[in-house]
Structures are given as C-alpha cells and as structure tokens.
Write a structure and sequence with these properties.
Blueprint lengths: L19 H11 L4 E6 L12 E6 L10 E2 L1
Parallel strand pairs: 1-2
Antiparallel strand pairs: 2-3
C-alpha cells in the first residue's frame, strides 16, 4: 500500500500495443507530474515504489507489452 496522495489515473491499459514513445507522451500529457520511462522487456529496474514514476515495458519492436502503471 502506498502513502502517496491520489493523483488521478494510475494505470493505462489502453496503451498496450502502441509504440513506447506514444505511451510516454500520452501518460505525461495526461499527468505532467509523472515521469514515464521506457524499459525493454527483460531489463532490471529498481523495485521501490515511486508515486511519480511509470514504467513503460516494451518489446524489441518498441511496442508496449504490459499495462503501464504508477509505481
């Protein structure tokens, strides 16, 4: 459970299947306080919860493969 204040939308299932850069632009346009970061599948990321971060997991073709969400 997070101690973060609610900042509106917390996940973007509609972005699965789109280009990674499009997903980042969409997330940051909808909520400018977020930092959306493209991460290639299979990469390691820090596991701490961050209310201002959204991992955007993409495949080798730069297509979003997992629902981006705050964390």
């Amino acid at each position: 459970m997070s101690s973060c204040e609610e900042t509106g939308k917390s996940s973007w299932p509609e972005l699965v299947g789109v280009q990674g850069e499009v997903a980042v632009e969409t997330i940051e346009r909808e909520n400018p306080s977020l930092n959306a970061i493209i991460v290639p599948e299979g990469s390691s990321v820090i596991l701490n919860y961050d209310c201002s971060r959204v991992w955007v997991w993409v495949n080798a073709q730069n297509i979003v493969k997992k629902t981006p969400g705050i964390g």
